[in-house]
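Let's practice the habit of predicting before peeking. Look at the sequence and jot down your guess about where helices and strands might fall. Then scroll down.
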Amino acid sequence: MLNELKNEWKGTLESLLKKILNSDDIAPLTMTEPPKSELGDVAFPLFQYAKIAHKAPQVIATELKSAVENAPHPAGEVILAGGYFNVKLSVSDLFSSLYETVMNEGDAYGRNDSLSGKKIMLEFSCPNTNKPLHLGHMRNDSIGESIAAILKANGAEVLKVNLINNRGVHICKSMLAYKEFGHGETPESTGEKGDHFVGRYYVRFATWEKEWDAQIEQARKDGDDEKVKELESTHPDKRAQAMLKDWEDGKEDVIELWNLMNKWTLDGLYASYKAMGISFDRFYYESETYKYGKSEVLKGLEDGVFYREADGSVQIDLSEIGLDKKVLLRKDGTTIYITQDIGTAIRRHDDYPFTSLIYVVGSEQAYHFKVLFYILKKLGYSWADELYHLSYGMVNLPDGRMKSREGTVVDADDLLSELEELAKDEIIAKGRESLVDDVNKTAHSIALSALNYYLLEVTPSRDMIFDSKKSISFNGNTGPYLEYMGARISSILKKAKEEGITIDDVDGSVLKEEDELTLIKLISDYPEAVRKAAENYDPSVIASYLYSVAKTFSHYYHDNQIIKAESPELVKSRLALAEMVLTVLKNGFALIGVQFLSSM
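Done guessing? Here is the structure:
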């Protein structure tokens, strides 16, 4: 609504400028935000017209002000600042219509149809079935869920998909380690969650490799060439590669073990998704889709898109995009990761003819997607132009980077449990058990909000450091702080209702405090924040917006009475303002995975 007023001013000023400059063909005005609030709410720089008018921008600003004063114009106070024509908008005049709009639209306030008619497939998570989810996956999942909600809020039809990476040499490494060291134990016999159980064997394989390498090194030192040769030929990594070949050839005992260990992992992963509020509309499995990729590569080989090297591998020349070449099928005919991605993309478009397909994948895979998109275009798929890699940075710990093979990752289940315990301790320490319906349930909501907000308030492209204690804090730029402000406003409105105060005949003219005017602007800006978040695929836009709203309301509430304000008109208008703030908080929460709690 405030943007509409800004655009009204823009249109009025452009019309008057044409008369002042005596030209119907002028460059459109640009709008910026003044550096200080006392300089207005919107600034229109006039420097670009100085050469045309043969006048200083300050002179043009003065003439434009005079023209505005003698013509119909939108409400607002003109402020000249050098070569800028600034306007302080009549924010309080918007209050009644803004309140009516926000209350009528409710949880739909902020939604728009800018992406109406778009069918967007969004791929995220994509775990391997050789280990449990960790903190890096959690950032991926938080971004994916949030982007899906944001795109839907902008009118898009969104299909959330997950590719389960359940084949490949990394899967065989866990299988081989279990076959070698498992001795028939199961998740049930050890009391472990299935994905944790399998992940332990992935780490065990890495240890086994190091032990084997140490033996080879010792044999070299001893000058025992025969032993070196024997150890190298039976190296765990070579055995894992051989197991992958057996898997692709359908060897019965390998398939049986693969099915067993995949089920253990998937049962654990699905339980983690449920606990974290992550859901998908469709699952794809690499064990199925890699076949499509293999056939596409062989077809591309026949058509001359790819070529066969002397060693028998199938490759593509990438010099056209400034790269070297890429293997698509190994010399033994087995596929690699990009092979299955080719098949998966094609199958997906057959299943769901998308307008665009967004891959939420870490920034270290930029090369992979550049090559993938190029290959699909060379294969003749025009929709390859609509593929997008939503790249995100690494999640590190205060003491360094996580490594799955070394077992130094932050496990997703453990982290969520830790955050729940920290939240529960905070509730008990503040003596607020009686104010929440269920301490454990509330602690879980706070933990999820802390996790999602901390992961999303950083722009996706940036690396970040995750600090669990900072994330769960009830003060500062955190999810629990936002939840607390939502609960505080709910308490105010509940008390007003209990005292029989009705919110009617609101009058924005009584709202004169700086924080009140700022909050009105922020509420009016919410739809634009939703649009901007979608345009940039950036949930941090919403997170930053919500923190500004919460922080401003907190400061406002600290300095001003609401229910006990000095006049009935002021009470009603301040309560109406609080209602609108609560609405945008709740609507924004839904876009970034923050849980709304009516009491904390």
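How did you do? The mean pLDDT is 94.
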